[in-house]
Write a structure and sequence with these properties.
Elements: H1 2-24, E1 27-31, E2 34-38, E3 43-48, E4 52-64, E5 69-79, E6 98-102, H2 105-115
Antiparallel strand pairs: 1-2, 2-3, 4-5, 5-6
């Protein structure tokens, strides 16, 4: 009986966590002059090449504790319609027309070459 209760409780916690991890796993596709940000459930953001306002590198607070806030570097892609700056890291949402990626030199070069934009 105890194993059965433990199995039920682990499923009540494990299944929602598994579903949430699918939401967090986001992939950026560059195709046909547009950026598409997807997770396993849906397309979150589609930005066409002519909608891009700027590609910026920012250090944003990402992880919080009662002792310290940890900042990470992000590549922030802003559109002409949604110019509001990102305030924190890991803030991609379906309704926004802006995209945020963890920074790496390779990603940054690919985006700059594709969009012929300069960081500001």
């Amino acid at each position: 009986m105890a194993k059965f209760i433990l199995l039920i409780l682990s499923n009540l916690v494990g299944i929602p966590l598994l579903m949430y991890s699918g939401y967090l796993k986001q992939t950026l596709y560059i195709k046909d002059d547009c950026l598409t940000l997807k997770n396993i459930y849906k397309i979150m953001v589609v930005l066409k090449k002519d909608e891009i306002l700027k590609i910026d590198i920012q250090e944003l607070p990402t992880y919080y504790s009662w002792v310290k806030t940890i900042y990470k570097k992000y590549i922030c892609i802003y559109s002409k319609t949604d110019k509001e700056k990102f305030v924190k890291g890991s803030a991609n949402k379906s309704g926004n027309k802006r995209i945020q990626l963890f920074h790496s030199d390779i990603k940054h070069k690919i985006l700059l070459n594709f969009f012929d934009k300069k960081t500001k």
